[in-house]
Amino acid sequence: MSVFNSAEFDFAFLDEGFTARDIVEQKINEVSLSDDKDAFYVADLGDVLKKHLRWVRALPRVTPFYAVKCNDSKAVVMTLASLGAGFDCASKTEIQLVQNIGVSPERIIYANPCKQVSQIKYAAAQGVQKMTFDSEVELMKVARSHSNAKLVLRIATDDSKAVCRLSVKFGATLKTSRLLLERAKELGVDIIGVRPSFHVGSGCTDPDTFSQAISDARCVFDMGEELGFNMTLLDIGGGFPGSEDVKLKFEEITAVINPALDKYFPADSGVQIIAEPGRYYVASAYTLAVNIIAKKVVLKEQSASDDEDDGTNDKTLMYYVNDGVYGSFNCILYDHAHVLPVLHKKPKPDEKFFTCSIWGPTCDGLDRIVELCGMPELQVGDWMLFENMGAYTVAASSTFNGFQKPDIHYVMSRPAWQLMQQIQEQGLIQPVEELCPSTMPICCAWESGIELPSSSCSTRVCGINC
Ligand SMILES: Cc1ncc(COP(=O)(O)O)c(C=O)c1O
Asked: Could you tell me which residue ranges the Orn/DAP/Arg decarboxylase 2 N-terminal domain spans (predicted)?
């Protein structure tokens, strides 16, 4: 694959000492005197690089195949392609996207167990061989349409501890797996190992789910080997957290996965191990800035007990901003996301906080971003920032009611760019510790990103229930 130049990526270099957060400020200042205060994103591609270094350090045996569905921005895909990642594509369009930037078919897994026949044929024509399945009908479709397919059996896992449960829709049980393997033998379909492509479900809170899934995978590998298949690939799926505001941190998960891999798929087994991380790579890279376009003050009825009230409880505030659940905040509906804004203007130390709700711009009552939070009083024209907005946001947003999607301003620091080019040309030649001396998530020496959210941040809005 050729080395990309910075113009192809369409990002701006961060000047020395500047962070992505500074660019947010700069963009806000640029429009401060105008009425055109559209919502916008700043996305730090250096943050994606940092995540990759962290991945390599935490899961050295696992090659990431980025789940394109999570955020199909060309700049993100090019960044990950430069770093040598593979790609999990769910459709013909996603395959086209990654192939158009020069990714070879071996670096693609068509990881959708339910595929349209014409798209299976497209994958065949493009040389994409790795694909997942979990049913007999899919096996028969592949047998007819893609004679060179190398199938990965997707097994159901216990996702009862996950926020986004996927085993409801996908995956074969262990019993069905045997039947499917036998049927594949009859049909002459090549299952290159079970290569169980499982996904324990995004937002998982129990790391043992991963080790159980890996042990189940071993079972299915053994079944496949018994039937004469040459098992060579294990796919541990996605669901790794992309930000720090989660119950189960990335390294807590990998601390469970690595021993399970060593136990069930030791390095000398020759099995290639891949994963399909999506949110892990992109969530924290994106910050969304939205502008308050309307506001409603709802006065409370006065009661006797309110006499000694300091005034903060006499009204609640409703803010209407220029992006909502039909746009970037579709993650609230589809990805079970809970978001809270970071105030753009730092509140004064003695400033009163009010009970507030935040709404999107459409005419639908469903378009609510935050039901309840505490904030100082803001005005129309003020900004709110939402961090960790890179996953399942822009990818599934619509222009319902005619509201356009926010512009995305991509940035990267020069040291991050240089390191990325070095990796693209020579691979990861330095030990990762030298590049990132500190314990993650503390930023790397070549820091180019915004500060990671911290509970002590004075401008962070409090959830009313926290
Ligand atoms: C097959 C498959 N792989 C990977 C992913 C990525 O999940 P995440 O973004 O939680 O890592 C998904 C998400 O739904 C998926 O369905």
From this structure: 45-283
Q: Could you tell me the domains of the chain?
A: 45-281 (3.20.20.10), 286-301+313-412 (2.40.37.10)
Residue 457 burial (CB count, 10 A): 14
Q: Mean pLDDT in the chain? A: 86
In which element (H, E) is residue 14 found? strand 12-14
**DSSP H helices in 146-303:** 174-187, 208-226, 250-264, 279-282
Catalytic residue at 363? yes
Comparing 455 with 208, which gets the higher pLDDT? 208
Residue 442 token pair: 């503390």
First to last CA, the chain: 49
Beta-carbon contacts of 146 under 8 Å, excluding residues fewer than 6 positions away, are: 120, 121, 123, 124, 129, 131
For the stretch 50-84, pLDDT in tens is 999 999 999 999 999 999 999 999 999 999 999 99
User: Which residue has its alpha carbon closest to ligand 1 atom 5?
Assistant: 238
CA distance 341 to 290: 9
Q: Using a pLDDT cut of 70, give the percent of the chain over it.
A: 83
Q: CB neighbours of 347 closer than 8 A, spacing ≥ 6?
A: 353, 376, 458, 459
∠ CA 3-6-12, rounded to 5°: 155
Tell me the CB-side half-sphere exposure of residue 203, using CA atoms within 13 A.
Answer: 16
Mean pLDDT, residues 25-35: 92
Sheet with 130-133, edge to edge strand ranges = 190-191, 150-153, 130-133, 108-110, 86-89, 62-67, 272-275, 233-235
pLDDT tens track for 345-371: 888 889 999 999 999 999 999 999 999
Please identify, by atom number, the ligand 1 atom nearest to the C-alpha of residue 392. 9
Q: What is the pTM of this model?
A: 0.89
Distance 277 CA to ligand 1 centre (A): 6
Residue 377 burial by Cβ neighbours in a 10 Å radius (0-12, 13-18, 19+): middle
Question: What separation in Å is there between the alpha carbon of 66 and the centre of ligand 1?
Answer: 9
Q: Tell me the CA–centroid distance for residue 426 and ligand 1, in Å.
A: 29
State the Cα torsion 156-247-393-92 to the nearest 10°: -30
Inform me whether the pLDDT recorded for 444 exceeds 70.
no
Which among 65, 88, 167 is the best mutation to test ligand 1's pocket, defined by most ligand atoms within 8 Å of the CB? 88
Q: Residue-wise over 49-74: b if at least 16 C-beta within 10 A, else e?
A: bbbbbbbbbbbeebbbbbbbbbbbbb
Atom of ligand 1 nearest to the CA of 240: 11
Measured from the Cβ of residue 335, the count of other Cβ atoms closer than 10 Å reads 18
Residue in the structure block whose two tokens are 């004075």: 458
Which residue ranges have their beta carbon within 6 Å of ligand 1?
67, 70, 88, 111, 166, 199, 202, 237-240, 276-280, 391
